[in-house]
Amino acid sequence: MSKFTVIGGNSSQDLAKKLSKKLKADLITSKVRVFPDGESKITLDGKLSKNKTIVVQSIYPPVDTNLIQTLSLVSKAKESSNEIIVIIPYMGYARQDREFLSGEIITMKVLGILFKGVGASRIIVVDIHSMIGLKHFKIKVKNVSAIPDLVYYFKKMKLKDPIVISPDQGGKERAKEFARKFECEYIALIKHRDRKTGKVQIKTSRLEEIKGRDLILVDDMISTGGSIIKATEFLRKQKCRRVFVACTHALLINGAEKKIKKSGVAKIVSVNTIPGKTSLVDISDTIAQAIK
Q: Which CATH number fits the domain that encloses residue 99?
């Protein structure tokens, strides 16, 4: 047996397998049986290391189910191992990091209590929606960026005079970093979202400089795709060439992929923090470096 083991949670089996190979660690898979009432029963297939165990599990939909399974895996690992490193490639609830409207519960604070309680030593996340959420954790937490891996993928594509676009001002720094590594310009659109209805509007005026150029729309996550669709429709009116989407987490809920393509996006490229058709970029090497 190697000096540590990797547990692949139900939502991240493939990523856990890749990571265990990079770390030359023993892989333990988890089998999940879901009962008619929705409860999960998890069985581990293998022996845990006494030294260190790495739990790999993304908390994407069904979010509550994957969260409970993650906590259960950490708790089980703690029974045998001295150190538990939890890799949460996609951290569910990351948008609930502060009280936006009076009376709202800061769920990230609850997660901080839970992960410490079950015995996590440290947590590694990928491109968390807001760094503020990590302040609620009383254990070591590290956020790693998928931008270098995404840039590497796009550099292999033959793009015409590319320019990086952020769909809103909130993602300006991400677009700036992507453009710096890609060695091109960037623009951040001005977006307004109604907090109560969720409706999105693009407030930016005309953009003459994107005419005839390939665009890379960069975002951290795509849920329903509303922001990406609005941005694409606006950008297509400015007579750009092709629109590509680069994002870390492709949730793509309620047929979002089809809707995004219909709006005029040529290709969606995401990272394997969430497995799917668009997850063409592997983050395992970046996570392995963060562990080491």
A: 3.40.50.2020
Asked if residue 277 belongs to a domain, the reply is: no
So what's the pLDDT on residue 208?
87
- What DSSP letter does each residue of 50-80 carry, written as one string? SSEEEEE----SSHHHHHHHHHHHHHHHHHH
pTM, to two decimals = 0.93
The answer to whether position 278 is within a domain reads: no
Tally the domains of the chain: 2
Annotated catalytic residue 191:
yes
User: Residue 15's domain spans which residues?
Assistant: 4-144+283-291
Q: What's the pLDDT tens digit per position in 208-227?
A: 899 999 999 999 999 999 99
Active-site option among 191, 230, 261, 277: 191
| Cis ω before 62 (30° cut-off from 0) | yes
Instruction: In whole angstroms, give the CA distance from residue 110 to residue 15.
Output: 26
Average pLDDT over all residues of the chain: 94
